Amino acid sequence: MVSNFKLITFATSEPSMGSDVANMKCLAEKDGDEYILNGTKFWITNGGYGDYITIFATKDPSMKHRGIGAFTIPTNIEGVRLGKQIPKLGQRASNTVSVALKNVRVKKENVLAKPGRGFVLAMQTFAHTRPAIGAFAIGCARSAMEYSIDYTKKREVFGRPIEKYQAIQFKIANMYKDIEAARLLTYKAAWEADQGIDNNLSFSIAKAFASDVAMNVTTEAIQIFGGYGYLRTYPVEKLFRDAKLYQIYEGTSEIQRIVISRFIMKRYKHAMPYLGKKRDKFNQD
């Protein structure tokens, strides 16, 4: 794989399981030193082009995260069937397929993580990929903003370009400040990943914020373009359709908010004195 260029896809999601990784049903049955895989994976990006696919499967669904393992297999071995490209609202150039596994035998050397260790591996992977999703969202938003800036200089209403109207200027200003904030949050999450720092909180903040920015900016871009923004002859309608997925894949925006709220409620350290009895103790100290 290192010496020869290969495409390797990543398969955790299933038809009935997305963000709830621990609830997967794809089975990995041990057979001597090997494993036999059975089940279906869904929403697999570039699954139709991959030379290999990393399958996350469980030895027992009732064990939740404690039963999950990871297995890297060639896509052309017996028992692997790749589905047709799934039609999507946006990001249509991204190949997305289902993967059906029927009695797929996995050799010992292809076991990436034994059952019980796969969940941690998946979470470690997301720690590096979710900042990248933030970057994707920022690029989408930036494109929409730049198209909007260009359009405001050319489109004239009531005798002058719409860039001269404060209502339009404020829209562009909001786009720019939100994109800059999303970029800095994403840089922080990526930097922490590179330094080996636990970036679980940072990547949740970056992904949730950047994906919301992409959705808001592309929506405003269509508003600036008016009726033309709704036409496929202009690029912003495509960016609008593409932006929605950033709030869904690699952990939905709701999942990211759960991560953030858990940190706030359990680990956040107060700078201000506590209210009530705790505050009294603080004052006595």
Strands, helices and their partners?
Blueprint: E1 8-11, E2 27-31, E3 34-45, E4 52-58, E5 68-74, E6 80-82, E7 96-106, E8 111-113, H1 118-154, E9 156-157, E10 160-161, H2 166-194, H3 200-225, H4 236-243, H5 253-266, H6 276-284
Parallel strand pairs: 1-4
Antiparallel strand pairs: 2-3, 3-7, 4-5, 5-8, 6-7, 9-10
Helix pairs in contact: 1-2, 1-3, 1-4, 2-3, 3-4, 3-5
Quick take:
The chain is an alpha+beta fold.
Derived from helix and strand composition plus strand pairing, the structural class reads: alpha+beta
Can you summarize the main beta sheet? Answer: 4 strands, mixed
Q: Would you count the extended β strands for me?
A: 10
Anisotropy-based shape: globular
- CATH hierarchy: architecture of the largest domain: Up-down Bundle
- For the record, give the distance between the C-alpha atoms at the N and C termini, rounded to a whole number: 61 Å
Low-confidence stretches: none
Tally of helical segments: 6
Task: Provide the residue-averaged pLDDT.
Answer: 94
CATH topology of the largest domain: the name is Butyryl-CoA Dehydrogenase, subunit A, domain 3
Describe it for me?
It contains 6 helices and 10 strands, in the order ββββββββαββααααα. By secondary structure, it is α+β, with helices and mostly antiparallel strands. The chain has 2 domains: 8-116, Butyryl-CoA Dehydrogenase, subunit A, domain 2; 120-266, Butyryl-CoA Dehydrogenase, subunit A, domain 3 (Up-down Bundle), CATH 1.20.140. A 4-stranded mixed sheet has the order 1-4-5-8, with helices on one face. It has a 4-stranded antiparallel sheet with strand order 2-3-7-6, with no helix packed on it. A hairpin with a 2-residue loop joins strand 2 and strand 3 (34-45). Helix 1 (118-154) packs antiparallel against helix 2 (166-194) and helix 3 (200-225) runs antiparallel to helix 4 (236-243). The longest helix has 37 residues, at 118-154. The radius of gyration is 23 Å and the shape is globular. It starts with 7 loop residues before the first strand and ends with a helix. The model has no long low-confidence stretch (mean pLDDT 94).
